[in-house]
Every structure is written in structure tokens, then in C-alpha cells.
Design a protein that fits this description.
Blueprint (H helix, E strand, L loop, with lengths): L15 H55 L1
Length: 71
């Protein structure tokens, strides 16, 4: 906020620079939060894909074993 503004007064007008600084802080915080959410989501997806791959590999191994027994 500009130096002539009293920060303790709700009726103090904000300057364009004040609003631009605030917008920059908000945008920065939003970008940080989105980045953290993306990392968390990617980690969950990676874990789920890993589990699905293991299950698929086990299923294929079981099917191969059953097929070799039936011959």
C-alpha cells in the first residue's frame, strides 16, 4: 500500500500500484497451489498406474500358466 494510506482504515482508497501488487501476490499463490496440486495428482496417477501394471502382469502370468497346464 502506498505510504500516505493508513492501512488500519477500511475506507482508505487503494492505488493502482497497491492493487497490482496484491494481484501479483494472489497470482503467485495460485500458481504455487496449482503446482502443488499437480504434483500430488501426478503422484497418485503414477501409483495407480503402477498398481494396475502389476495386476495386469500377474493376470497375464496366471493365464500363461493355466494355458501351459491345459496343453
Amino acid at each position: 500500500m502506498s505510504m500516505e494510506n493508513d492501512l488500519n482504515t477500511a475506507h482508505t482508497p487503494a492505488t493502482k500500484d497497491d492493487l497490482e501488487r496484491l494481484e501479483g501476490k494472489i497470482v503467485g499463490k495460485m500458481e504455487h497451489l496449482l503446482s502443488e496440486q499437480i504434483k500430488a495428482t501426478e503422484g497418485k496417477i503414477e501409483h495407480l498406474l503402477s498398481e494396475q501394471t502389476k495386476a495386469t502382469e500377474q493376470l497375464l502370468a496366471d493365464q500363461a500358466q493355466c494355458y501351459s497346464r491345459s496343453r
